[in-house]
Specification:
It holds the Pfam family EF-hand_7. This protein has 87 residues and is mainly alpha-helical. The protein has helices at 15-25, 27-31, 40-48, 58-76. The protein is globular, with a radius of gyration of 14 Å.
Length: 87
Amino acid sequence: KNSSQQKGKDDFLSLKDMTELLKSQAPTFLAACNRNRPDYMKELFKKADVDKTGQLTFEEFTKVFALLADDTHRLSHGEDRCGPDHH
């Protein structure tokens, strides 16, 4: 069973779900670039929530995942994690 099917939950992430997920699974990402400021999660969620339903579909969450992947890539190459995208 995947985590979204546990306890009868639907296949969407709320802001609270996304916040808990990133805090537990991506602390290195959140520690950089002033991402630990109070409004960062709300801003990130708002950008990802394309259809403005207040919940993220898997497709919408891939936008968040892409940021995590980019951050990991920059970290692995010793690049500026907070600068503009050069690719």
